[in-house]
Amino acid sequence: xxxxxxxxxxxxxxxxxxxxxxxxxxxxxxxxxxxxxxxxxxxxxxxxxxxxxxxxxxxxxxxxxxxxxxxxxxxxxxxxxxxxxxxxxxxxxxxxxxxxxxxxxxxxxxxxxxxxxxxxxxxxxxxxxxxxxxxxxxxxxxxxxxxxxxxxxxxxxxxxxxxxxxxxxxxxxxxxxxxxxxxxxxxxxxxxxxxxxxxxxxxxxxxxxxxxxxxxxxxxxxxxxxxxxxxxxxxxxxxxxxxxxxxxxxxxxxxxxxxxxxxxxxxxxxxxxxxxxxxxxxxxxxxxxxxxxxxxxxxxxxxxxxxxxxxxxxxxxxxxxxxxxxxxxxxxxxxxxxxxxxxxxxxxxxxxxxxxxxxxxxxxxxxx
Length: 368
Prior knowledge:
Elements: H1 12-20, E1 25-26, E2 31-33, E3 49-53, H2 64-79, E4 82-87, H3 94-103, E5 108-112, H4 117-123, E6 131-135, H5 139-144, E7 160-165, H6 167-184, E8 195-200, H7 205-221, E9 226-231, H8 238-250, E10 253-259, H9 265-274, E11 277-282, E12 293-299, H10 301-314, E13 320-324, E14 331-333, H11 342-356
């Protein structure tokens, strides 16, 4: 049984057109804003307004932020909500961008990414009548500001919902693929050093869970393999990502897993330059290098964004977490490159079934 693609993948072409249509800049704040869209009536005849604040990677990151925007656009089309998006250019934009939407009376404001935890922690209690959702962060992390404010009053965060992704699961599957390719010398041009690499963005839990799973997946099928790991300490530095990847290829890595957002686009460029291989992240990135991106570890950010909005429309939004994993289609793998042998794909798919059945347990802790 092949791994199922994420539920909203069928909207890819439509969503990409929507992204291409985005425009307009707010130069005084260093942000970019898309025109509002969606005009149908929400529940009870009220037009529900949803604002999306991206992380610094921006809408053209071919991954995390772009996926959130796809989910936003799908909600505008399917649920009749009015939507708007603002792109953060630096981390200092987070609080003003969230605050601006809340001040304008938006019903739901969605923050994209772990780096916005502190901003939501600060802003949400100031606007108890506005609902806040945050992508890739659990509710308790927002309440406590990732443990920095352990005595925070939970009653002040009754308007916040988090989203959790079990990305150690899809990371594990990507590792099984990489480990089997190395073990069996299964792709053209391998260097024969039984080595793979990882380029992380910033060492935060949503990044490290991918990497932890990958490490375990590689070692499960190829215990002698070497796994290189380096962080770029940025999500918006493709050149830095490329330089790290080139260094890992020079050390004998044949496959480099990018877990670095926009920075990771440089990893894919390096793979193409060296005629070697990469694994994409968050979205299906095979189209960026069909011969080089052998698969992608996918996170249903679009699904999570849509579900947050739908909960507001349905009147079911409440404080707590939405959880996404292999079993409910919230994480998974993208398409495999044509060069990947079918027998390896079959073994990866079997590992997916074993994870869903509880036969394989995966830690989210990185081995450094």
